[in-house]
């Protein structure tokens, strides 16, 4: 399974980068989201994957008695998901605004700071 | 001493606020600044004559050995008197020359700044503070050359001068650091104690080259001379003060100051003699072709600086004495000639020698000053110029090697300097007055008195050389030559070889003056040779460098986001591939991997399908929807692999993102087929390579052992310390609680941004 997930990570990276290389602003955002997912999966894999053993201490015990999933990558990814949501929300609204003002979502027409172009 | 330097800075700053007062009739009052400093330094003559040296030291950055320490010895005094004395006359002259100029206050501020910096330069004992003052003179010179800032030529000349002298300044800094490193001190006086150490050190050559680089650029030696004729674009008082009498002598001062410490070696003497001689001959030859009065003076100034460097190169006591006397002589006559040129320019509106004649009829006192200045310049007795020239011949004749050659070079240069002096000082006043100039009248006495005063001083010094010897030169010589013999300046040495050579110089000078007439034809001829001059070569190189940097920058910084991303990713691909494949040993241990189940395969396939669809679909809505699918597939993955918290978060966040996207999407334009297919293919290959490398990287990492120290800490203490059983939650809200707080702040900022962007009402101008 790890091999499969490693390949999925690669695909997510490739798709993310490819979308970021497009000229449309919407695709740029989609690319960033895909890349973010790829990074999350990478971190998740680095903590090794464990099936059916969430890092929750059983009701009656005070410490873990058996093998458990690594909580550190999970905490990291949780933070990453939330932060990337903030980024995405802001970016989406910014794209909308930029399109309203400039009338284009083509990045090649946004590469100047001059108002008149 | 510190206050005498600070005075100029204070006046310069005060002029920012009080400029309006001094711009009108009170400008002449500023002359009091250099005048009082001149008197102040005069009062030191008896102290210095008695052989004492005045020191003053103020700690500045003691940990680096950088202090504001000043020393006033014979050499510093000579220069200080020159700076303040000529400064007084130039300040007075300016108030009439630039009368009612809009920026007269600025001009005085720059002049005061320059004077203060120049005084600091010649008084500094610390090499680092000397460097600071050295750069300040370059900077004030830049402002003064570019004073007429609406003229393009003026700006360009200012930039060239700053460039050349600025590079020299860097050389000086490097030299100073190196000398400080070798002797472990930045004090020039202390360096003198380490003469042996310095001269035998392996870095001696490098240090000397740096000092030479600084001196040659500042004192306009060949092949760095070309900024000086350009600097003549400055108003005439500036040319007088900075570019003939004082600033350009800073390089000479540096060489003189270091000749006891670094000098008397083959490298030092030979280089200086060769560079000095080349400069003398090159510029003396060039001045024949000039018709602009200031152009002639510029080249004769370069020739004179060449003579000074040449004399320092000879290095004997006679040569150093000759150099010091010649510094004074040159300052006196060259400053006068420049001021006279300024008067002619001011009154007639031209400096073209072929159009000027007969001005003695309208400008008699100026003509007298010009005539005497020419006599001093030509070395005609009984002027001080004669004494100066004698000393030069005395020095060259007594050299052990090549005395004849060295003397011949000096004679040729002196003949041409004689010519230059007479062309500028005498020629405009001779002959028939053109009718256009008949209505000229005398300028304000503030303009013609200063040159007259200077040439009178030249005559008096000539008749009583004792004055100049005891007051300035003897002290300066004794501060430079360690075991000096008694040496007396005289006007009359009796009939000897030197006198013969003087007579020869005068005779040939008169012949050259009579035979050679400045013509435009000659000037045009020399212009054609400009192509191969050091100036053109430098400009060619700088332009080439500029073009190169432009194309370099445009290649990397072309403003296309995808270009930047492609560059970054491309570089990463190369770096990653190099690391991964340089020691490639991927052994997959299948036993350590978890087994495949049908669910998992289904989810992975779903995810891959959704990703591919997102990338290739032509509908934005479909792309966003399939993005949602990717997100939910992630939820399931997290669920399978024991991460319920992640699954919940991903679920809510993904839902929100999709909703937000759809809400916004209908406002945006449809996808367009923007990129060319070739480009898409290129980007596709690049992305796939990158993704493939990441996959390999993941597999490689999975082979390594995992460090679970941190994990174990959290797992064990989650309940015991923090009383929580969900370890992920405990990490986020307890162990790393502050991080989470910051994260919440980030979200609030983002929310505020979103809110602001939605509510923002644009002005009509922006909506277009």
From TrEMBL, chain A:
Keywords: Cell membrane, Membrane, Transmembrane, Transmembrane helix. It comes from the Bacteria. It is found in: Cell membrane. It is a multi-pass membrane protein. One of its GO terms (cellular component) is plasma membrane. Belongs to the CPA3 antiporters (TC 2.A.63) subunit C family. This is Cation:proton antiporter. It comes from Psychroflexus salis. The gene is mrpC.
């Amino acid at each position: 399974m790890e091999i499969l997930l490693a390949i999925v990570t690669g695909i997510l990276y490739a798709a993310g980068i490819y979308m970021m290389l497009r000229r449309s602003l919407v695709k740029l955002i989609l690319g960033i989201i895909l890349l973010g997912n790829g990074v999350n999966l990478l971190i998740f894999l680095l903590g090794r994957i464990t099936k059916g053993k969430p890092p929750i201490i059983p009701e009656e015990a005070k410490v873990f008695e058996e093998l458990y999933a690594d909580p550190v990558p999970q905490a990291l990814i949780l933070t990453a998901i939330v932060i990337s949501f903030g980024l995405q929300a802001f970016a989406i609204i910014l794209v909308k605004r930029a399109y309203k003002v400039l009338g284009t979502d083509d990045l090649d027409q946004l590469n100047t700071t001059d108002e008149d172009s | 001493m510190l206050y005498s330097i600070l005075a100029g800075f204070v006046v310069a700053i005060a002029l920012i606020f009080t400029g309006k007062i001094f711009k009108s009739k009170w400008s002449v009052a500023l002359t009091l600044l250099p005048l009082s400093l001149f008197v102040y330094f005069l009062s030191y003559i008896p102290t210095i004559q008695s052989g004492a040296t005045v020191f003053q030291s103020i700690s500045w950055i003691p940990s680096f050995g950088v202090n504001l320490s000043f020393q006033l010895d014979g050499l510093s005094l000579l220069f200080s008197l020159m700076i303040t004395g000529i400064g007084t006359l130039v300040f007075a002259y300016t108030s009439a020359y630039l009368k009612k100029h809009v920026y007269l206050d600025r001009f005085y501020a720059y002049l005061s700044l320059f004077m203060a910096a120049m005084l600091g330069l010649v008084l500094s004992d610390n090499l680092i503070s000397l460097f600071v003052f050295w750069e300040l003179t370059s900077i004030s010179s830049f402002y003064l050359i570019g004073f007429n800032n609406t003229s393009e030529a003026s700006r360009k000349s200012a930039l060239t001068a700053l460039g050349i002298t600025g590079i020299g300044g860097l050389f000086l800094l490097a030299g100073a650091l190196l000398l400080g490193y070798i002797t472990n001190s930045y004090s020039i006086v202390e360096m003198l104690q380490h003469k042996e150490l310095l001269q035998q050190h392996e870095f001696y050559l490098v240090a000397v080259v740096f000092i030479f680089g600084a001196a040659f650029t500042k004192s306009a030696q060949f092949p760095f001379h070309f900024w000086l004729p350009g600097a003549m674009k400055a108003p005439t008082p500036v040319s007088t003060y900075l570019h003939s009498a004082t600033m350009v002598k800073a390089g000479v001062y540096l060489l003189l100051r270091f000749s006891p410490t670094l000098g008397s070696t083959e490298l030092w003497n030979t280089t200086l003699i060769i560079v000095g001689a080349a400069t003398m001959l090159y510029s003396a030859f060039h001045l024949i072709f000039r018709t602009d009065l200031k152009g002639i003076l510029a080249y004769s100034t370069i020739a004179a600086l060449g003579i000074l460097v040449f004399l320092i190169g000879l290095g004997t006591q006679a040569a150093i004495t000759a150099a010091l006397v010649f510094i004074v002589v040159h300052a006196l006559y060259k400053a006068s000639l420049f001021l006279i040129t300024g008067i002619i320019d001011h009154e007639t509106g031209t400096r073209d020698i072929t159009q000027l004649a007969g001005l003695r009829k309208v400008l008699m006192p100026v003509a007298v000053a010009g005539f005497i200045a020419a006599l001093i310049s030509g070395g005609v007795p009984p002027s001080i110029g004669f004494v100066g020239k004698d000393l030069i011949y005395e020095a060259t004749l007594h050299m052990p090697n090549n005395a004849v050659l060295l003397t011949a070079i000096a004679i040729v240069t002196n003949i041409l300097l004689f010519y230059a002096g007479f062309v500028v000082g005498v020629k405009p006043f001779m002959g028939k007055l053109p009718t256009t100039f008949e209505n000229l009248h005398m300028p304000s006495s503030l303009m013609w008195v200063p040159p007259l005063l200077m040439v009178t001083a030249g005559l008096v010094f000539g008749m009583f050389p004792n004055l100049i010897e005891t007051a300035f030169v003897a002290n300066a010589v004794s501060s430079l030559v360690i075991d000096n013999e008694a040496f007396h300046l005289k006007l009359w040495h009796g009939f000897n070889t030197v006198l013969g050579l003087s007579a020869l110089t005068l005779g040939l000078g008169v012949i050259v003056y009579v035979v050679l007439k400045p013509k435009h034809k000659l000037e045009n001829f020399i212009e054609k040779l400009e192509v191969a001059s050091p100036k053109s070569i430098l400009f060619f190189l700088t332009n080439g460098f500029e073009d190169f940097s432009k194309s370099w920058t445009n290649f990397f910084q072309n403003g296309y986001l995808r270009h930047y991303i492609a560059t970054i990713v491309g570089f990463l691909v190369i770096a990653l591939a190099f690391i991964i494949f340089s020691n490639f040993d991927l052994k997959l241990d299948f036993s350590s991997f978890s087994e495949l189940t049908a669910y998992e395969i289904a989810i992975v396939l779903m995810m891959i399908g959704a990703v591919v669809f997102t990338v290739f679909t032509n509908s934005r809505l479909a792309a966003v929807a399939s993005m949602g699918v990717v997100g939910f597939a992630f939820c399931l993955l997290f669920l399978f692999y024991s991460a319920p918290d992640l699954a919940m978060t991903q679920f809510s966040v993904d839902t929100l993102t999709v909703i937000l996207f759809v809400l916004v999407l209908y406002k945006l334009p449809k996808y367009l087929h923007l990129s060319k297919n070739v480009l898409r293919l290129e980007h596709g290959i690049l992305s796939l390579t990158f993704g493939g490398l990441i996959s390999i990287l993941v597999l490689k990492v999975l082979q390594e052992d995992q460090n679970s120290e941190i994990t174990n800490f959290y797992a064990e203490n989650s309940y015991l310390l923090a009383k929580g059983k969900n370890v992920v939650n405990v990490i986020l809200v307890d162990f790393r609680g502050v991080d989470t707080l910051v994260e919440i702040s980030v979200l609030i900022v983002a929310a505020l941004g979103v809110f602001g962007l939605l509510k923002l009402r644009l002005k009509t101008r922006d909506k277009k």
